[in-house]
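Q: My collaborator sent me two sequences in one message, no labels, and asked for predicted structures for both. Can we handle them in order? The first one she listed is below.
A: Yes, handling them in the order given. First sequence, followed by its structure tokens:
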Amino acid sequence: MRIPHNERLGSVITDGEPERKCILSGAHDVRDALVRLAISPDGEVLPDALARAPGRGAWIGVSRAELETALTKGKLKGALARAFKGATLSIPADLPERIEAALLRAFTDRLGLEMKSGRLLVGSDRIAEHARMGKVAWLAHAADAGEDGSRKLDQAWRVGQDAEGSGMAGVTLPLDRTTLSVALGRDNVVHLALTDRSAAQRLAVPLQRLLRYLGQGEKTGQDHGEAPAQRAGLLPHDDDLRLKDVPKQ
């Protein structure tokens, strides 16, 4: 089944996925593109990065900068009061920071799970080898990765997917090599790749939420007019480019 794209957000969604409404902008979008807020038993508003907390939730689809403005001007308080039906709420002053930290943790935790499963590759030589063989479904680079190294891996990926000239490129993550290395327990993690399309799609959800919140949802990857999936570092669907011999896990 082909997975349609949300062109505005650059997100990857599935057919029939439920939509949610941003309490600040009023815009509707798929839930995987928005960030859920929940309230604790004592009424504190907290980020629910995995959208799994029980009870009523409120959804936001704005950037951190926009959220901070809404918090300062009191718009967030009113929107939350309506969303939670007048419940007594406590909004932490550092809520925007807490949301970013939660989204970062959700993304790095997902990376860690994929590494434990053996689907996540690190190291330029290993990634390049798999990329040229057509066995990479997702490619990413640390925020401080060297341009030359990233460009070479992007090229190897395109060669392996018979996509030369397409501009397909890995995503530049909003984390530097030190942060990635600590998160994954490895030394000098600069480039990452996934060998499984399903794993790449699982990772796309926390990644797109994070990039959207940081205001980078339309700025990832190299600027070659790439499709939304490419901006997320995802391999396009096999009716666009062939996925050759990527193992199904």
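Q: And the one she listed second?
A: Here it is, processed independently of the first:
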Amino acid sequence: MTSNFPFDPQVRNFSLVNAYALARAAKLAYRPPEHMGPALQGEWGFDDWQYFDQGSARGFAASQAGLILLSFRGTKVDHLEDWFADANIQLEPGSAGRVHAGFQHALLRGWKEIQSLLDAYRGDDHSHALWITGHSLGAALATLATAKLLWEEQRVVQGLYLFGSPRVGDNVFATAFDRRFGAQTFRFVNNNDVVTRLPIPTRLFPYRHVGRLKYFDHHGRLYGNTSWLHRLLDRVQGRVADLGNPGAVGIKDHHMDRYESLVERSLHARMK
């Protein structure tokens, strides 16, 4: 892209350049709509964009040459505890298996509007590559939106980047999703981010994550495949390092600002 939004819409493998662009897009989804236009059209070079707001399904869709971008907004950090306390964690039938009822209901409330935006941007030649991203609740909605587009609408999705995502579906859903789209789904987890460990899997609710893990340790170093034991020990180290600092480390590590900063740092380190 020639704008201030470096991005390769045709890449399918993991890309730190694309990860940073999508982290910026996930963060932008939290801004008021009147602040989105100057960034998307004035700074990033998108031809058109639209904001959507239907209950918990909020965010924007934007297009430029060869690219459609769909970004879902998450729950504000100061509302996280109330949101997860009230969320319906029951599993119900979804596109590729059983999924979180609360997340699915939130997506369905705004789905017609999202569909119409994507259809408007697709054009007659279908040449635009569709990329989807989101943070927190937005990451959950991004995952379910991708599943609906793939299974129910047979639409091509180029890639999915998730930041601080909770679990979305059961083992059947996760297995089917990963078989079809796991190689193009990248899920970022920052050290002690508590949301990434919710909902807690049980025999009654066998939740499981999707996609390829990208893990930031307590030093901010980025790992691909890393064992659960390494992550457990690293979370302990992160908690110890944070002792005496204000705020819960599990919430602080969930901030989209931190994810954006960590991806940017990793990109700069890779370019040296």
